[in-house]
Amino acid sequence: MQRAKYILNEVLVGLWRNVTMTVAMIITLSVSLTMLGASVLMYMQVDQMKSFYYGEIEVSIFLRDDVTEAQRAAIDQSIDSNPLVQSKTYESREDALAKFKVLWRDSPDFVKSVGPDSLPESFRVKLKDPEQYSTFADQIKGQQGIQDIVDQRELLEKVFKIFNAIQVMALIVAGFMALAALLLVGNTIQVAAYSKRREVAVMKLVGASNWFIQAPFVLEAVVAGLIGAILGFVFIFVGKVTLLDGRLQALTNVLTPIPDGNVWLMLPLLAGVGALVSAITAWVTLRFYLKV
Amino acid sequence: MIQLENVTKTYPKASRPSLDDVSVGIDKGEFVFFIGPSGSGKSTIIKLLLHEVAPTRGKVVVNAKDVTTLRSWKVPHFRRSIGCVFQDFRLLPNRTAYENVAFALEVIGKTKAVARRVVPEVLELVGLGGKEHRYPHELSGGEQQRVAVARAFVNRPLILLADEPTGNLDPDTSIEIMRLLDRINRTGTTVVMVTHDSNIVNQMRRRVIEIESGRIVRDQARGVYG
To answer: Which residues form the ABC3 transporter permease C-terminal domain (chain A) (predicted)?
Structure first.
């Protein structure tokens, strides 16, 4: 109990003794952890969107205007017999026009200009595994009378690629900031160990156990890591509320919304990573610096 | 109590060993001087006994424990049975005499209640009664060394190691410190002292082990500096 009080007191004194360094350490830690949290969130988001959209997407096989009855039947036949296909619907010109009218009902002038002959007829095919698109396309495109095969997935892939790039960038920034943060942690611990060198020497001399000597330093780093993690979480939370739910709400509707549960999940994740990494850095620094 | 068996210690990059095949035994309750010129290797003995350095060859046994094979995590506990005094006192400047001694107890897990009981007692023993709340800079060199002795002795160690404890003190103060170490020795504590203060060695008439260039050249029961 009393030793806990001693260690706690040492931690607070340690953080306060070098307050500018402590602030620098906490800021870099928090930025690094924010980037980490953002990229983890984005990863979970992309995953969620994939499972959401991949269930919905279809391969559209548009038929030529001059397609014959026999060609259509042959295409129909080959889709039905293809093992990759889960389900198939046929969309006639009239169906397409009806859908079109619903989709663009806010622009009646535009709808008027489109006649029943303007839209091609098509087969809408759902694949068992959407990733198998190119295999399926290769098998089907030899058929006569096909105008075009469009995979909705390809459009999504482009979106996901952008996400991926942002995610990688966030991770790179997180990595660089983490490096800076850990150097600062190491440096802070060195300064702390130097300013307490007399105490440490006496403690070693009279036989204080190693963990007792190291605990205040390691805890100092852990406290800084935890504060950095909480700040990082606040950044993420505020960022989500003001940006995604506020200004960029249009974008969030296209994307699937980020569940609050995922955002809250970042708190234990960032706290765990922040505390653990700081503790290990401090401990390694002490191994070199105190030689206990 | 203390046993060195064919101990050789060569520091990295050193051309010759600091201790060269040294064998010596010290019994419980003995008072032993290690003397010799600077660089003869006498301070290395203290470091070996504290497990601050490991011997290159040979065996070091302290308190029936083979220090050579002691696991590093056991070293702190091992050191609690050894008190230590140095030439430069090594007191914490921002703590009073009382706090300096109590610190040594608290960091090995003793409660404040224990400290309140034993610290005044040991400060009284070293002759610092009434000066408990002075800071080191408010004390004379001799008084600071008394605080250091009190800190070394407060745990009632089996062995007290003193590395040139009078090196920074004038002759009269030195003799007072020696009287103190003698009293501690009479409680049954083994005292090992490294010194090159001939005056003190000649007055005390205790066992003298002389080291030169890492070898024992003399081991005399009631010796003088020579």
So the answer is: 172-287
Helices and strands in chain B, H and E counts: 7, 10
**CB distance B107–A198 less than 8 Å?**
no
- What is the DSSP code (8-state) at residue B169? S
Cα separation, A219 vs A282, in Å, equals 9
Whose structure tokens read 């010290």?
B26
Q: Is the pLDDT of residue A276 over 70?
A: yes
Q: Which B positions 44-63 lie with beta carbon below 8 A of chain A? A: none
Does the domain made of A65-144 have the CATH classification 3.20.20.300? Answer: no
Question: Cβ contact (<8 Å) for B90 and A206?
Answer: no
Whether residue A209 and residue B106 make contact (CB cut-off 8 A), yes or no, is no
Instruction: Kindly state which CATH superfamily the domain B1-81+157-226 is placed in.
Output: P-loop containing nucleotide triphosphate hydrolases (3.40.50.300)
What residue in A sits closest to B112 (Cα-Cα)? A2
Q: Where are the beta strands (DSSP E) in A26-107?
A: 59-63, 85-91
pTM over 0.95? The answer is: no
Sequence ranges of the domains in chain B:
1-81+157-226, 93-156
- For B7-35, what is each residue's pLDDT tens digit? 999 999 888 899 999 999 999 999 999 99
